[in-house]
Specification:
heterodimer; B: alpha+beta; eight-stranded antiparallel beta sheet
Chain lengths: 521, 172
C-alpha cells in the first residue's frame, strides 16, 4: 500500500510493510516476559529475515531494524487485533505502549507512524482561535513549538486512520502546513577520519572546493551499510593496469593477490605471480591512482580512501611499458576472473568479483580482437563460478562516438565516462553504449612514491564505479554480474539538466551519475 | 607505403604498411641505436608524435629498412611498421592468435598448422582450441597473409595477426 502526502509542498510517497507492524511493549510487559520470543508472541509472530542480506518484509534494511529494536521497538507479524490497532490513531492493545504501521521511503529507510502531527496556522491568528480550530478539526495540543508562531505538535482526539486524518487537515486552508511526525532512524552520518578525505569531492561534495554540493557518489551514506566486506569475506576487485605501487601505504593492506604480465619485447609476455609483500611489481602512477579510487584504505590516518575501502584488491599489471598486444590484455582479464588460467597453484574461487580496467588509446578508434572478445566474455559469463564478473572499463577521453571503441562498447563491458564536481559530463566518449558517469575530474587519490595527487580522466571514473559495484556485491553476494550492472544503472542520479530518453539514457550522460547510497539500499 | 588488410571479428581492418621502415628493439639494434633523424617527419604526417614517443620509450627504434639491415646484427628481429586509422602506429609480429573449430591438442594443432608454416607458441586456456602460434616459414607471406590463409582453411573460428600497439592510461 502506498501513502502519499505533502511535505514542504512536495508529494512524498511511502510504501507500507504489509507483513510487519511496529510494537513498543509496555515496560511492565517487557519486565514480565521471560524472553524476547515470548514478548513477540504476545503480539503476533516473529518477522523472518528473507535474504542473506539480512532484510525482511518489504526490503527493510537490517541496520534500520536493529536501530529501532535497540530503541525498544519490536517488528512482528501481527495478530489481527494488533494489525487493526496499528492502522488507527489512539487505538490501544494490551501490554503495548504503542502499536504503529511500518513504512519505507524511496531510499529504503524505515519510517514508523505516530499519532502526532506538526501543524502551523496563520501567524496572525489569535491563540484562542487557533485552539478552537484545532479542536474543531479533531486535534488536541501536545505542545506549542515556540521557535516560530502558531506552530504546534498535536495529537488526534479520536480513533481514525492516520492518512485520512492527515488528508482532512491538509485540505483545510487555515493550515500553512500539516505534516505527520514519523519515527526515523537518525544516526550520525558516517564520515571517514582520513586526513585528506575533505579533498575527495568524489565521495562527498559539500561545495567548498568550488563545485556543487551533492555532486558526488553519496559514498558516506552507502558506507553506513557496507564498505566492501560481504557477509563471508571482502569483495575482491581486480585492477588491471600498466602497473601499480602495491606497497603504497594506503593500498598494501588491501592487496591480497595479483600477477604481472612482463613484456618480452616482440609481443610475447611472461606471467609472474605476485604474493603480498614481494618486491619488483611494476609500479605506475596511473594504476596506483586507479587502485586507490577503487579501494584505498579508510581510517588509517593517511590520505583519503576508495569507494570500497574494505574490499580486497587484486593487482594485475600488463603492458608495463604501455606498448603491447591485445593478447596480453586478454590474458590479464582471464587471469583476473580465474587465476588458474595462468597460475595452476591458485583456485578459480580466488578470482575477482569485480574487474576495473582503464587502459586503451585515447583516440576514437580501438578495434577489438577476437582473443580479447573471448576473454571479456569468459570473465563476464564464467567468472564468480558462473555468476559473472562485472567489468568496468574507462570510456575514451574525448568527444568521440563510443562505438568506435569496440572494447569499452563491448556488450559485456560497463563503459564509464567522467563527470565533474558540478555533475556535468566532461568530454568522455558518447553514445548509447555509454553506461553512466562517475566523478573523474580533479579527483584525489593515491599515486606512486607513496604520495597523493589530483588527477583527471575516465581512467579514474571507472575504478570508482567498480568500487560501487563491489559495495553492491557486498550487500548482495549472490547477484549476477548483470544484476549488479542493472542495479547501478537504475540507481543513477539523472544529472546534467538534460533530457534522458524513455530508457533513462542520455548519449553524453549514459544513465546518469553513479549513486552508491541508492545502489546499496 | 602499401595498403594492407586483415580480418578481425569478421570485419576487414585496413591499414598502411610503411614498407621502407622497420622497428627494432633497441637492445638488439645496438646500445646507441636511435630512430633515424628524418623518421619522425616521415611518419608524422599521419601519426601523433605521442605515438612514436610511446614506442621509443618502450625500447623501440625506427630505421630505414636498408640502413637497419646494414647496421644491425643479423640476429636482430625487425618489425614491420603499420599505421592504422586515426594515426595509430602498430608493429607487426610473427604471431597469430587463432581458435580451432575442434578441440585440438597442441600436437594436433601443430600438425594442422604445418602446411601454413606455423607452430604453436602456447595454448590459451580460457576457451577451447585457443592458441598463439608463430609463423616460422615466411616464404608464403607474413603473419597478416598467413592469418588470411589459415582463416580460409575451414579449420578455425578465426585467425588474427598480433599487432603491437600503444595501450596506455586513459587520462588525457
Amino acid at each position: 500500500m502506498k501513502w502519499t502526502f505533502r511535505l514542504r509542498g512536495k508529494d512524498v510517497t511511502l510504501t507500507s510493510v504489509q507483513s510487519a507492524v511496529a510494537v513498543r511493549p509496555s515496560d511492565e510487559a517487557r519486565s514480565r516476559a521471560a524472553s524476547r520470543p515470548r514478548l513477540v508472541r504476545q503480539f503476533g509472530g516473529a518477522v523472518r529475515d528473507t535474504s542473506a542480506g539480512g532484510r525482511f518484509g518489504l526490503d527493510l534494511p537490517a541496520r534500520n531494524r536493529q536501530l529501532f529494536e535497540r530503541a525498544g521497538w519490536l517488528f512482528v507479524e501481527p495478530k489481527p487485533e494488533v494489525e487493526g490497532a496499528a492502522a488507527i490513531t489512539r487505538a490501544t492493545v494490551a501490554d503495548a505502549a504503542a502499536v504503529q504501521q511500518v513504512f519505507v521511503d524511496g531510499s529504503g529507510n524505515v519510517q514508523i507512524t505516530t499519532d502526532l502531527l506538526t501543524v502551523k496556522l496563520d501567524p496572525e491568528m489569535p491563540e484562542s482561535e487557533v485552539k478552537q480550530r484545532l479542536k474543531g478539526d479533531g486535534l488536541s495540543v501536545v505542545r506549542q513549538l515556540r521557535f516560530t508562531p502558531n506552530t504546534y505538535e498535536v495529537r488526534a482526539l479520536n480513533r481514525r486512520p492516520l492518512p485520512e486524518l492527515l488528508q482532512a487537515v491538509q485540505d483545510k486552508p487555515h493550515y500553512l502546513f500539516a505534516e505527520p511526525m514519523l519515527l526515523q532512524a537518525i544516526t550520525g552520518r558516517f564520515r571517514p577520519t582520513d586526513p585528506d578525505f575533505g579533498r575527495q569531492w568524489q565521495h562527498s561534495n559539500d561545495g567548498s572546493n568550488g563545485g556543487t554540493a551533492g555532486a558526488d557518489i553519496r559514498a558516506e551514506q552507502a558506507w553506513e551499510l557496507t564498505r566492501g566486506r560481504g557477509p563471508d569475506r571482502p569483495v575482491r576487485i581486480a585492477v588491471i593496469d600498466n602497473g601499480m605501487q602495491v606497497r603504497h601505504p594506503d593500498l598494501k593492506a588491501g592487496v591480497v593477490a595479483g600477477g604481472s604480465f612482463q613484456s618480452g619485447g616482440f609481443g610475447s609476455s611472461t606471467f609472474v605471480k605476485y604474493k603480498p609483500g614481494a618486491t619488483g611489481f611494476p609500479d605506475e602512477a596511473h594504476g596506483t591512482f586507479c587502485m586507490g579510487m577503487a579501494g584505498a584504505r579508510m581510517n588509517n590516518k593517511r590520505g583519503g580512501c576508495g569507494a570500497a575501502p574494505e574490499s580486497d584488491l587484486i593487482a594485475v599489471a600488463c603492458l608495463d611499458d604501455q606498448v603491447g598486444t591485445q593478447t596480453t590484455l586478454a590474458r590479464a582479464v582471464a587471469f583476473a576472473a580465474d587465476p588458474t588460467r595462468e597460475d595452476s597453484t591458485s583456485t578459480a574461487a580466488a578470482g575477482a568479483d569485480v574487474i576495473a580496467c582503464s587502459l586503451g588509446p585515447n583516440g576514437a578508434d580501438w578495434e577489438l580482437t577476437s582473443i580479447l572478445d573471448i576473454a571479456i566474455r569468459f570473465a563476464a559469463n564464467q567468472g564468480r563460478g558462473g555468476l559473472g564478473t562485472p567489468i568496468f572499463w574507462a570510456a575514451s577521453n574525448g568527444h568521440f562516438q563510443i562505438e568506435r571503441d569496440e572494447v569499452s562498447s563491448h556488450p559485456d563491458v560497463i563503459a564509464v565516462g567522467r563527470s565533474d564536481h558540478n555533475d556535468q559530463a566532461d568530454g568522455s566518449a558518447f553514445g548509447p553504449k555509454l553506461e553512466f558517469l562517475a566523478p573523474g575530474v580533479d579527483v584525489y587519490n593515491t599515486t606512486s612514491g607513496s604520495k597523493y595527487r589530483f588527477w583527471t580522466g575516465t581512467s579514474f571514473a571507472a575504478p570508482l564505479a567498480a568500487g560501487v559495484g563491489a559495495l553492491v556485491l557486498a550487500r548482495n553476494p549472490q547477484w549476477t554480474g548483470q544484476q549488479v550492472r542493472e542495479r547501478l544503472r537504475e540507481t543513477c542520479d539523472k544529472v546534467g539538466g538534460v533530457t534522458y530518453n524513455s530508457q533513462g539514457h542520455h548519449n553524453e550522460y549514459g544513465h546518469g551519475r553513479v549513486n552508491a547510497a541508492r545502489a546499496v539500499q | 607505403m602499401k595498403e594492407r588488410s586483415f580480418v578481425q571479428r569478421n570485419k576487414r581492418v585496413q591499414l598502411h604498411e610503411l614498407t621502407d621502415l622497420v622497428a627494432l628493439r633497441k637492445e638488439e639494434a645496438g646500445g646507441d641505436a636511435r630512430s633515424g633523424s628524418d623518421i619522425t617527419e616521415r611518419i608524422a604526417p599521419d601519426v601523433p608524435a605521442s605515438q612514436l614517443r610511446a614506442f621509443e620509450k618502450a625500447g623501440w627504434v625506427f630505421q630505414e629498412r636498408g640502413a637497419a639491415a646494414a647496421a644491425a646484427p643479423e640476429t636482430a628481429q625487425q618489425a614491420q611498421v603499420f599505421v592504422k586509422s586515426g594515426g595509430r602506429l602498430a608493429l607487426g609480429t610473427n604471431a597469430l592468435t587463432l581458435q580451432f573449430k575442434d578441440r585440438l591438442s597442441e600436437e594436433e594443432a601443430n600438425a594442422a598448422l604445418q602446411p601454413y608454416g606455423c607452430r604453436v607458441i602456447e595454448s590459451l586456456s580460457f576457451a577451447p582450441g585457443l592458441f598463439r602460434v608463430a609463423v616460422v616459414d615466411t616464404a608464403q607471406g607474413d603473419a597478416m597473409d598467413t592469418a588470411d590463409r589459415v582463416s580460409n582453411s575451414g579449420l578455425v573460428e578465426f585467425a588474427e595477426p598480433e599487432l603491437i600497439e600503444v595501450t596506455g592510461p586513459r587520462s588525457p
